[in-house]
Amino acid sequence: MEEAIQAFQYLFSLLFFSFATALGLLAALLKTLRSMPWWCSCPLCEAYVTKSWAAHFDNLCDWYTHLLRESPTATIHIHVLRNTVTANPQNVEHMLRTRFDNYPKGKPFSAILGDLLGRGIFNVDGELWRFQRKMASAELSSSAVRFFASCAVAAEVRDRLLPLLDLACAGDKVLDLQDVFRRFAFDNICNISFGLDPGCLELSLPVSEFAAAFDKASMLSAVRATMTMPLVWKAKRLFKRGSERELREAIGLVNLLAKQIIHQRRKLGFSSSHDFLSRFMACVDDDKFLRDIIISFLLAGRDTVASALTCFFFLLSRHPDVRAAIRDEMDRVQLERGGGASHDDLRDLHYLHAAIHESMRLYPPVQFDSKFCLEDDVLPDGTFVGKGTRVTYHSYAMGRMEELWGSDCHEFRPQRWLTEDGVFEPESPYKYPVFQGGLRVCVGKEMAMMEMKTVIAAVVRRFDIEVDDDGSCQPPKFVPSLTATLKGGLPVRVRRREES
Predict the structure, then answer these.
(1) Rounded to an integer, what is the distance from CA 254 to the centroid of its chain?
(2) SS3 assignment, position 464
(3) Which CATH number fits domain 34-496: 1.10.10.60, 1.10.630.10, 3.30.460.10, 3.30.1050.10?
(4) How many other CB atoms are found less than 10 A from the CB of residue 92?
(5) What is the distance between the alpha carbons of residues 71 and 74, in angstroms, rounded to a whole number?
(6) 101-147 pLDDT, tens per residue?
(7) Phi, psi dihedral angles at 485 (to 5 degrees)
(8) How many CB atoms lie within 10 A of CB 107?
(9) Which one, of 82, 84, 55, 54, lies nearest residue 71 by Cα?
(10) How much of the chain is helix, strand and coil, in % rounded to 5?
(11) C-alpha span between 121 and 104 (Å, rounded)
């Protein structure tokens, strides 16, 4: 028996050594083939192998933006990744509307995020996607759910966010506003989606195991999607090494806590509840599927809103004229209504609505999105896309294209969204795909806008938020994540508004 075990160990070691040697040879081969015609000669391939892009740009998205600007069609192809990347609105419409069926999320993408998102709405196609979208769309359009959500957001702002900012004023403390907004959004999405209150934004700022594990799993999954070749991460997952071992541990904790949420929701009863989980539980018996639904709602409802709010206040701190214009508009609405601004009044804040859209043009919460081509196709700009190719539309780069937004595309100008009469005028979702477009357009768009406008109106009315950056005015740096996440957070000082 002992000899058999030793033989097995020897065989396993031999296989592992052979596998490692093969990886080394493959790396050497790739290095040699870089000069061959089929290898993309653009700097991004060099960046993929050596990470040299960091020597020229603070963010990988800025590198993509540079490459897309240099392309006559605003489209590039990265041969080593088999990825076509575009900032052309006609191509985006082709993918999201005209040839929607030919550009699903696809099995390769589902494999990358499968461990975290499972069969959730953002990681599936076909019937599973249609079922979840139909359910979510029906609930989000319900007046009862909208009222429940607006009350939950207003209570979180009134009872937790504003007192926390007041406390920061009193102590003249530096506050990580990104962390604050992630806690705020986490409390909201858990309340609205699951009928549970984790209390992450209480004044003591308690540590949430669930939120921490979810953050880590999200970050490591993003590394898979953007920084690692499939062969590498799959090998690391097979042998439970490095980042893949950490990802496995984080997802294990997420699964455990999601199971507890489902159990607690069942214990409390869900027949008359307005939260999304209760509605799904009424027609879904599979706890693993419910877990996937929970994680998808968390990703959509927490990370995107927190990212959008963080970047908005980053920009607002550098543009006091925009802050003043928002305050003037709120004062005007109050005077017209004869009192304090209500939830209905938020819809009349056209300049604020424009400022939020302008912020997300420059810093979209989801910086790019990918689909996979089912059958050979030709994009409207003439780019051939082979079967199985990953096709990515780059929202971050699109917001920085002069052909789309003019020579002032780098400037934060909310008025570009307003008519001469000061009324908000939307752009094509294919020119501005922050909320996607076509059949996959974000069903939670209106709720997200309500949440952001409620927060901004309440905070701007009472406080001045100043980024604590020693006056250096450096552009933000992002870490790998499924949504835009600032490296080092957003340290700010909070001042009470000086009343004239």
Answers:
(1) 18
(2) strand
(3) 1.10.630.10
(4) 28
(5) 5
(6) 999 988 887 888 889 989 988 889 999 899 889 888 887 888 888 88
(7) -130, 125
(8) 12
(9) 84
(10) 60, 10, 30
(11) 12
Q: What whole-number distance in Å separates Cα of residue 288 and Cα of residue 213? A: 18
Summarize pLDDT for 419-468 with one digit per residue, the tens.
999 999 999 999 999 999 999 999 889 999 999 999 999 999 999 999 98
- N-term to C-term CA, the chain: 87
pLDDT digits (tens, 9 = 90+) for 303-345: 899 999 999 999 999 999 999 999 999 999 876 665 555 667 7
How many residues comprise the chain?
A: 500
Rounded Cα distance, 272 and 263, in Å: 17
Three-state DSSP state, 391: strand
Nearest-10 crossing angle of helices 287-298, 107-117: 100
Please report the DSSP string for 25-76 in residue order.
HHHHHHHHHTTSTTS--SHHHHHHHH-GGGGT-SSHHHHHHHHHHHSTTSEE
Mark residue 425 as left, alpha or beta (left: phi above 0; alpha: psi -120 to 50; beta: remaining).
beta
Cβ neighbour number for residue 111 with a 10 Å cutoff: 14
CA distance 168 to 160: 12
Rg (CA), the chain: 24
Cα 438-442-447 angle, rounded to 5 deg: 145
Q: Which residues contact 310 (CB under 8 A, 6 or more apart)?
A: 177, 178, 181, 486, 490
| Prediction pTM value | 0.85
CA pair distance 302, 181, nearest whole angstrom: 9
Please, which pLDDT band fits residue 471 given cuts at 50, 70 and 90?
Answer: low
Phi/psi class of residue 379: alpha, beta or left (left: φ > 0; alpha: ψ in -120 to 50)? beta
In angstroms, rounded to a whole number, what is the distance separating the alpha carbons of residues 32 and 320?
53
Amino acid at 76: I
Domain limits, the chain: 34-496
Mean pLDDT of 1-11: 47
Closest CA to 51 of 179, 275, 219, 223: 223
DSSP-derived 3-state class of residue 167:
helix
Cα–Cα distance measured from residue 357 to residue 413, given in angstroms and rounded to the nearest whole number = 10
**305 exposure class (CB count in 10 Å sphere: 0-12, 13-18, 19+):** buried
Asked if residue 151 belongs to a known ligand binding site, the reply is no
Inter-residue contact 91 to 380 (CB < 8 Å) = yes
Q: Which strands make up the sheet holding 174-176, listed edge to edge?
A: 174-176, 491-496, 463-467
Q: Determine the Cα–Cα distance for residues 130 and 126; give it in Å rounded to an integer.
A: 6
